[in-house]
């Protein structure tokens, strides 16, 4: 890039806000990198817009109520239960 959209003083200001210490060599390197990043975003501006799809359909199945286990059946194979609930190990 011949003309940078970012100058080293802006990089120093952003680094100060982020509490990052940059030496002069790093500031120059980051200035070039930021300019390259901004150029990449300018390239994205050239991507044509796409019309959204107008007809979207729900591909999920509808919810259906089905019979489930009763409380006694659910607790039948539990290693431990108490007052109608599963009982697990104490977490400390």
TrEMBL record:
GO terms for molecular function: ATP binding; glutaminyl-tRNA synthase (glutamine-hydrolyzing) activity; transferase activity. InterPro entries: Asp/Glu-ADT_sf_sub_c, GatC. Keywords: ATP-binding, Ligase, Nucleotide-binding, Protein biosynthesis, Transferase. SUPFAM superfamilies: Glu-tRNAGln amidotransferase C subunit (SSF141000). It catalyses: L-glutamyl-tRNA(Gln) + L-glutamine + ATP + H2O = L-glutaminyl-tRNA(Gln) + L-glutamate + ADP + phosphate + H(+); L-aspartyl-tRNA(Asn) + L-glutamine + ATP + H2O = L-asparaginyl-tRNA(Asn) + L-glutamate + ADP + phosphate + 2 H(+). Residues 73-83 have a biased composition (Acidic residues). Residues 67-92 are annotated as: Disordered. Pfam families: GatC. Its EC number is 6.3.5.-. GO terms for biological process: glutaminyl-tRNAGln biosynthesis via transamidation; regulation of translational fidelity; translation. Belongs to the GatC family. Heterotrimer of A, B and C subunits. HAMAP family: GatC. Allows the formation of correctly charged Asn-tRNA(Asn) or Gln-tRNA(Gln) through the transamidation of misacylated Asp-tRNA(Asn) or Glu-tRNA(Gln) in organisms which lack either or both of asparaginyl-tRNA or glutaminyl-tRNA synthetases. The reaction takes place in the presence of glutamine and ATP through an activated phospho-Asp-tRNA(Asn) or phospho-Glu-tRNA(Gln). PANTHER family: GLUTAMYL-TRNA(GLN) AMIDOTRANSFERASE SUBUNIT C, MITOCHONDRIAL. This is Aspartyl/glutamyl-tRNA(Asn/Gln) amidotransferase subunit C. It comes from Halorhabdus tiamatea SARL4B.
């Amino acid at each position: 890039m011949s003309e940078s959209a970012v100058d080293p003083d802006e990089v120093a200001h952003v680094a100060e806000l982020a509490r990052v210490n940059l030496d002069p060599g790093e500031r120059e390197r980051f200035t070039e990198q930021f300019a390259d990043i901004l150029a990449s975003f300018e390239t994205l501006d050239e991507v044509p817009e796409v019309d959204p799809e107008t007809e979207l359909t729900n591909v999920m199945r509808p919810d259906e109520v089905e019979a489930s286990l009763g409380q006694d059946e659910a607790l039948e194979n539990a290693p431990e239960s108490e007052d109608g609930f599963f009982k697990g190990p104490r977490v400390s």
